[in-house]
């Protein structure tokens, strides 16, 4: 994670093309060989930073009760959660990296890897909400479209935020995510699930 944070900082200050594996190793205080032992490319060095935010998001969604909507739960969960200064720094670094994806195609691979992992994790959440097996076609399709929607929202928000076009509150982001998932899914995964009557 330390190497990933240093790589993210270097990409942000001097660009991906102008950053080498040697640069990342030097700033992280390790050998270049060690960088290549743990990462398949210089761009993949930022996967842990990108994954940290996605992991927290998915961990939160695993607590999502059937009786609550996507937006209501996440806003409530956000107010109850306590992010550390390092969590906030990682989130900021992640936003900056995502904002570079359009102009730095090499960064798309690690970003899509993280989105792929999130898709698998989200399948379990959706399966529970639809009361279907995780491998069911409807669950897989919903998870794929939902994470694609989340990816597009994060890219749009990151570009706008970093460029100073708009300031987003966490609540704004949650509402944008909910709206995008609803638009792209035929399944009512964002809405509270009605209680089944007792027989």
Quick synopsis:
This protein is mainly alpha-helical and 199 residues long. The protein has nine helices and no strands. Helix 1 crosses helix 6 and helix 2 packs across helix 3.
List the helices and strands and how they pair.
Blueprint: H1 2-14, H2 21-28, H3 32-38, H4 47-61, H5 70-80, H6 85-100, H7 108-130, H8 137-163, H9 170-184
Structural summary, described in words:
There is one protein chain. The protein is mainly alpha-helical. It has a domain at 46-184: Orthogonal Bundle (Tetracycline Repressor, domain 2), CATH 1.10.357. It contains nine helices and no strands. It has helices spanning 2-14, 21-28, 32-38, 47-61, 70-80, 85-100, 108-130, 137-163, 170-184. The mean pLDDT is 92.
Residues in helix, %: 55-70%
| CATH fold-type name of the domain at 46-184 | Tetracycline Repressor, domain 2
Order of helices and strands: HHHHHHHHH
Based on the coordinates given, report the CATH architecture of the domain at 46-184. Orthogonal Bundle
Based on secondary structure, the structural category is mainly alpha
Uncertain parts: none
Pick out its properties.
199 residues; mainly alpha; Tetracycline Repressor, domain 2; 9 helices; 68% helix; elongated
